[in-house]
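Appendix C reproduces, verbatim, an entry submitted by the partner laboratory led by Prof. M.T., so that reviewers can inspect both the input and the predicted structure.
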Amino acid sequence: MNKQMSINQKRDLDLVRRIQYQLELYGIRKDMSPEELSALLEELATLSVDVVREIKELTE
């Protein structure tokens, strides 16, 4: 069980790092085109869904 929890924690941490990285990119690039911003928001939404799905699986 601890091994599985550790794997889940590493996966969750990776997801959080990916989201933070995308947010940092956005903060640095305020001159983004609408297409770039749309792609970034789509990726953030996908990552957010992944995080929610993982949390839901962990709490079931």
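Helices lie at 2-28, 34-59. Additional entries are available on request from the coordinating office.
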